[in-house]
Design goal:
The protein has 117 residues and is α/β, with parallel strands linked by helices. It has 2 domains: 33 residues, no CATH class; 51 residues, no CATH class. The protein has 4 helices and 5 strands. The strands form 2 sheets. A 3-stranded parallel β-sheet has the order 3-4-5, with helices on one face. A two-stranded antiparallel ribbon has the order 1-2. A hairpin with a 2-residue loop joins strand 1 and strand 2. Pathway: Amine and polyamine biosynthesis; putrescine biosynthesis via L-ornithine pathway; putrescine from L-ornithine: step 1/1.
Length: 117
């Protein structure tokens, strides 16, 4: 059986798996656990190591360019917190996205692009 740790980040329960397991196996374990609990809520599987590795690669290859994450791509507050902790800025396309980033004080206003069209 695949083992994992549980932590809470931004008020959400996060399962942290050992990296020796593949994404498919991890998704299967989560889905089976949810089925056993009759839990039909969706879940997301994110490889945070890959996310961090890609960010570090960006900073190494483009040290003079500050990346901004488009909040409309995925506005999950855990993901946004992790991205903010890495140092990314945010591209907000709506007042709701802007309010979300400001309300949670993820970054300073200087690290936000607001481009409402």
């Amino acid at each position: 059986m695949t083992s994992f740790q549980t932590e809470f980040i931004s008020g959400k329960k996060i399962a942290i798996f050992n990296q020796q397991y593949g994404n498919e196996e991890i998704a299967r374990v989560i889905a089976l656990g949810k089925m056993q609990k009759d839990d039909e809520d969706p879940f997301a599987l994110v490889n945070l190591k890959l996310l961090i590795d890609r960010y570090n690669e960006w900073k190494r290859e483009f040290p003079q360019i500050q990346p901004f994450y488009a909040v409309k791509c995925n506005d999950d507050n855990v993901l946004l917190k992790i991205l903010a902790d890495l140092g990314l800025g945010f591209d907000c396309a709506s007042k709701a996205e802007l309010d979300m980033v400001l309300k949670d004080q993820l970054v300073l206003p200087e690290k936000i692009i607001f481009a409402h069209t």
